[in-house]
Each structure stands twice: as C-alpha cells, then as structure tokens.
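User: Could you check the structure of this?
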Amino acid sequence: MHQKRLSILMILVITGLLLCSGLSAQSTVKSWTLKECIQYAIDNNIQIKRQELQGKIADKNYNQSKFELLPSMNAGFEHIFSSGRSLNTEIYEWENMKLQQGSMGIRSEVTVFNGLQNLNSIKQQKYNLKSAIEDVEKIKNDISIYIATAYLQILFDQELLNVAEDQFEVTMIQVDKTETLMKVGSVSKGTLLEIKAQAAGEKLIIIQRKNQLRISKLTLVQLLDLESLEGFSIVTPENLTIENQPVVVLTDSVFNYAVINMPEVKSAEYMLQSQKKALAVTRGRRSPELYLSGLYYSRYNENAINPLDPTLNYSLDGQLKDNQYKQITLGLSIPIFNKFRIHRDISIAKVNMLDAQYNLKQSKQTLYKNIQQANSDAISALEKYYSSIDAVESMLEAFEYTSEKFDVGMVSSIDYNIAKNNLSKTQSDLLQAKYEYLLRLKILDFYNGEEISF
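Assistant: Sure, the predicted structure tokens are below.
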C-alpha cells in the first residue's frame, strides 16, 4: 500500500514537471506582427547600421568644413646640441665649439578670401550629409518592403497548406466511402486503389507545402537576423480579405507624392546640389587668395653675451625677452599657371555634376516604373482574383456533382480525381491572386506615404 502511494506520488510529480516544461516551451514561442518585424529589422539590420555610420562620417565632414573658417595656429620649440665649426650668431664669427641653443615661437594664419571656396565647401558637405541621411531612410524602406513581402508569403503558404490538408481530409472520407462500397460490391478494388493513390499524392503535397512554409519562415527569420527558426511564428491578421481593402489608386497621384517624399529621389537631389557646390569650390581655386598671418618668435644661446653688462650671466628669461620677434603679414597669392590642373579639375567637376543630373532623372524614372508596375500588377491580380472566385464556385459545384456521381458508380475514379485537382488548382490561383493584390496594394500605399500594416 505504501509503495502504491509512492508510485502515485511519483507519477504526479513527473506529470507536473512535464506540464511545467511544456508551459516553459510554450512561453518561448513569440508570435510576431508585421509592425514588430519591420521595427525589429530597422533596429537591428547591419546594413542600416553601416549606412548610419556613413551618415556620421558625413556629419563630421560637415562640421570640419565649418571649422575651416577659423584661423590655424601652430606652436614650435627646438633645442639644438652642436659641435664643430659653426657660426657664432652672437659675435658673427666662425668658431670650433660645442654649443647648445634653441628657439620657440607661435604662428597663426587665417584666409580672408579664396574665391568663396570655404563657404561653398560648407554647403557641399551639408548636402552630402542630407544625402547620407536619406540613404539611411532608403534602406529602411527597402527592408520594410522585403519584410512585408516575406510576411505575406508565409500567410500565402499557410493558406495553401490549409487547402491541401482540407483536400486530403475530403479524399480520406472518400476512401472510407469507397471501402464500404467495395465491401458491398458496388465498386471494384481497383477503384479503391486509385482513390488511395490520390490520397497518397495529396499527402505528399502536404509535405511539400509544409517544407515551403518552413522555407518562407526561414526567409523572414534571416531578414530579421534571428539566430534560429525555433519558436518563431507570425500573427495572422484578422479579416485579411480583398473586400476589406481600398480600390487601387491612380499611378500619377501616387507618383506625385512619392517623387517629393521618397528618400531615393531626395538623396539624388541633394547629391546634385552637392556636385554644383563642388564645381563652385573648384572654380574658386582660380581666384587670388588673400590671407592674414601673425608670428611670434624668440631664441636663446648658451654663449649669448648680455648687451648691458658682458660680465654678467645672460639668463634664459632675459634672452627670450630681448630676442622677441613679432610679425603680421597680409599676403596675396595669385595663381598664374599650374600646368592646367585647375582646368582639368573643373572639367571633372562638370562631368560629376552632369552625372548627378542623370542620376536624379534615373531615380525618378525608376520610381515611376516601380509604381507603374505595382499598379499594373495590382489591377491584374484583382481581375484574376474575381475571375478565380467564379472559377472556384464553378469547380466546387462540378466537384460536388462528380463526387455524388462517383458515390453511386456513375463516373470513374479518374474523373473524380480530375475534378478534385481542378478544384485544388483554382483555389490555389485564388489565393495567389489575393496575396499578390494585397502586396502590390501595400506597396502603392507605402509610396503614397502610408505605413505598411494589415
């Protein structure tokens, strides 16, 4: 009796541990919404982080271009040990001696005018910074579209799997019916084998659909840079039907908004402005340069003689004070001939500006083509969807009619399988059209300034 109680107690403990481990496993499963996927990718994507680093470099260059307006200042000090025949600068005679001497000073220079090169350089680096920021937004947009595409692919593959499982259940019911009919002699054994073969084929389709669903999930997991597919799932949006979606908007209205707000176009526009300023900087090198400089200098020598009293020691402080030298210079540098380097650089700057103009034009063309293609694909998918609805209804009716005739032996199993396969194909076509339309519609909404969500 005591052993029986211990056995029951152990069973309860083991059951409790299994339940706890099951709850723990379930707690690790996270269902991701589309918004969470996009936000996670934006926060963790390495490509985005690398582009943000480029933005930081552009910001540093912009700040440095403003600092170039400030005066430069350099200080120097040197102490010299020498021996042998050298010039004694105190008495201006050549002597063989060992000598320690040195000097120190500070120099500052500021550009007063150089053809507005510094001001144009500031504007150029400012446009470069703006372009870099827009490039970050462009990558974020691309990642958002990739995530939405992968997310919808999972939903599509999940529905295909559900259709395949439903078809398999229908076939298995038909297998049971056929076995009963064979037992009473209404159908032959060959008919039963053909139906079982159909069921085996549909079971293989289920396995293929499961593998495809796993691949789709893996694609999204890799886009999110997650370590493992284990415990990953997505939230299936409610009422995800075409009937709940707005009609397709006009291409021109979307493009008019996108061409002003899409980061790829704004980045190209900023780069064009940057190249214009780069040309202005290069042209500024033809201008004379006006500069202002200041110099403070002093020196000392161990053999120096005190000019007030040669018998007294000439201290270091005294030498530095007596040997001070100050200078202010207002200089003008005029470029006359530099082996045509400036002419070459101006020509290259013009080519770069022309290339930036073409890049802007190409960015707008690519954007318009993408919107136009998404609009055309959405319209085609919508037409295919409504056509597939009629096809599914017709095929479903035909299948039910064929199934009834098959039950009473009026048609062969081949006719039954053909009707069933036709129904399965039209259902797949319907789902494909549905998700193709939803994807293109979301892309158009995105170009129109709306957030990608379901």
